[in-house]
Structures
1.
Amino acid sequence: MTLFLLNIVLAVLWCFTWGSFDFLTLATGFVLSYLLLGLYSRVTVVEGYATKARDLVRFALYFVRVLFVANLQIAYEIITPGLGFSPRIVRFDVTGLTPVQRLVLVNSINLTPGTLVVDISPDRRTFYVHCMYASDYDKTIADLNDLKQRLQTQVFK
Amino acid sequence: MNHVVLLNILTTLALIVGLFFLLVGALGVLRFPDVYLRMIAASKCVTLGISGMLLAGVFHFIVIGTTAEADAVTGSSAMAATTKAVLVILFQFAAGPVGTHMLARAAHIDRVRMYKKTLSDDLREDLLE
């Protein structure tokens, strides 16, 4: 059912991109989104859509806030004279995350300025994260853990 | 009329924010001491900058779509522009970080020299073990 709704939403989205709602456009959009969802439903199973969507919005708001604050921090660093960096590459334990969760976590870490995933250990249990301001080792890890925790409770339940 | 003024203000604000972060990102590439820090400036400020510019475009097209001389065609082109802008922002958020990660990884494998005040490098330690 959810997949069917998603299918319709995607078809309408397709019409928006073309800026027209003829039958032909809608039909093309429907077929294309059906094919797309066929691929998608093999990767994941969609359930509990409503609460999931609400939690996603909450995470998105948190994420935009972090993005802005950290970008302003970098902007301040660039504009004011002198460089106050204390960079480090730290280990960050991600044992127990599924591949999709790791993917989203890497993207979130990379988008939050100041942190950058440099490498992932061969057993895929550790991220190596480059941080701009890491004079306090434990606090850096705690911040990353906060992000991970939010991802786990608000995006993947 | 009133909401057109409001939308124009929003357009200008989004443009200013977007351009500010793009400028800051460019300055950061010039000023930052090593490849990782430069990459941070180059990728992240630009993500926010592009989002700002695209949002400005969205507001502008909404203004065009709602003015007196607008007809059905410009109205729907506003919608098309909005959808495309939102999609581009989403794709940017999905694809940008992956590129940054690959560049950082390549730099580390290549042993690019790090900033002299770098405190520690756990990855190098683990590789040496």
2.
Amino acid sequence: MRRVFAAIAAALLCASGASGGAPPGVDRALVESDAMPTKLSAFGLFRDNDPLRPVAGIAYTLRTPLFSDYAEKHRFMLIPEGERVTITADGAIDFPVGTVLVKSFGWPDWNGGRPVETRLLIRRASGWVALPYIWDADGEDATLALGGRRVPVSFTTAAGDRHSIRYAVPNRNQCKECHSLNGEIVPIGPKLRNLVLDPAASAALRARYFAQPAALEPTMPAWDDRASGSVADRARAYLDVNCAHCHNPGGSASNSGLFLRWTDDPAGVNYGIGKRPTAAGRGSGGMDFAIAPGAPDHSFMIYRLESIDPGIAMPEVGRSTVHKEGAALLRQWIADMVKDGSRRLPSGLNERRHPHNRHPGKGRDLSVAA
Amino acid sequence: MRYHHLVVSICAALVVAAPASAKTISVSADAADANEKLQEALILAEPGDVVELGAGVWKLTDGLSLDVDNVTVRGAGTGEGGSILDFSGQQGAGEGLLVTSDDVLLTNFAVLNTKGDGIKSKGADRIVYHKLRVEWTAGPKATNGAYGIYPVESSDVLVDSVYVRGASDAGIYVGQSKNIVVRESVATENVAGIEIENSYDADVHDNIANRNTGGILVFDLPSLPMQGGHNVRVFSNIVSDNSVPNFAPAGNIVASVPTGTGVLVMANRNVEIFDNILDRNGTANVMIVGYRYEHKDPNYQPLPRQIVVRDNQHGTAGYAPAFPGGAEIAAAMGGTLPPVLWDGSGDAIVNDDVGVLSLNLPDMAMPQSAAKPSPADLKGAAPAPLPGITLPASMEAKVR
């Protein structure tokens, strides 16, 4: 991650040093049109069409990123000359029309670290549009893949686990499944509480991009940095980033009644504690609750995170491997919850009245009949 | 009179539904990248377009989705020689096909063996499911997907002439929706044949629900964005031989449905069950109960209220009650339970000329062990009948 940052930062420094003014090469008219060019190079976002060398913009990372099959993500944002990003009164980041958020996905030990895909999220006058591009075999350019594709990749994780998967580049509708709020496409990564601008970006560049650069103070912990927060807070950060784009009242999983935003009450039944499955099907794994305090092995949230079966796995999109480390964090969080029903647990967890619940598969008949 | 009405509504529908540029996008099942091509067609379709699925067996590895209003997805049939979307090799997505746009018609194709749900539509108003087959071809298995046809969070839903088999939850499941018609469909060998959950204003009629665990369910559950289910009519259905042992994954609410349940109402108000043929449901032809799990939802109403059961034809029932203590109660009553089972909570009118067994558990906090079963007479004057559902003419025109 640090290495990537350095690479992009270096490229951007070169870029800004070289031009200082209008981004060379970016086709602003194309960016702001309704066109969906077949080739990524048409936008002119990169030097020599190298995804690690943006012509302009500010690189950024997230305190807690979305897990995508251990892919390394190179992110940067680009806004039109003369425009600025503003922070609204309620703390949302408002990007101007013409903004391009660029995210490239790859693995350091796959194909020389070159990205497999680059996704654009473009703010047009008509709203945000998501365009997925897959890099061609020769690496010279990337091609629009509205319908998505599975790309075989192999990589080794930091923990030394070797994976060979058919990585799923999402189709444009799947982009929207995660990026939709009340039916509109919205960015989900760059939230004020989670956004970290490239530390190498100069004060002048920050001021050129942001109307209130001093407001950029991320408050959410980094899920994998013990120093940044308690287990519970890091677990909540993880859930916010990996789940809450769907699991919120205006998101794709609104009907589940499971809401996992950083701002949701983590003691409430709608946060999953003592919450029975709604439409989980096989995702329940024979368990009664999304989160059973003190019992990660009886919490189907964990069961779903640790599965790659499409009928079970959560999130539904963007994952062909288990995020071992993320699941471990959530396991610890749930294990640490008090088990004693007299504390803040819902009384439903005291299952003495429903003895069959402890024996999945047996006596599936009680509650309804009586 | 009726003819005139029909013509007017078709014309109205055509004006709404057919912009000048409407086109048909045909996709072939045989292309090497058929999955990607079909998905692209579904993305690039414009309002008014028809996406035509070629005949043949489509081997699909990833879920499909549609997010464009007023598109028709039309196949060449649901059986042999039709358009068969086979998801046996599915690697991703929670369902076979997901629709998130309004005014969509899905017709004349089959979706087989999805890993999760078959066809889901969410926030898709005025959706029409017509002449579809959703099936897990190995029959009842706990490893089958949950829902076959799954509209949720929608207004105006029509499910017409579909066939669903093998769902490990509900074959046809309508959740958190309003103004719903499920008709002339067949649900067999699912855990629940047809389920209306946390929904308002539904007509379920002229369906066949047989050989499920439970035939037709009308449920309301707590802690969900939309609850307080009410105004549901279940009529003129054949609900028979629902004898398949429950194969739902435990934890899900339908896992608690006793094998041999005909029509089951839980925690709803104003539900009318009439003119059905109810036969060979070993636990009960009709069951009316409250939600007896503990919950922490102050807004939730767990009791069944104003349930009306009338004018149904009852065959045999109650000969194999599949809930704890059921066999003992049946033995005490001479071998079988009466066709209608009520847990004693809320209120119900049963004017069918058959016996009713009450478990006399009016309070949701009473454990089942406190049941004091006794025959009950629930005959009485029913409240004013529900008006019945009218769908927008544009929807009815699509299935004529």
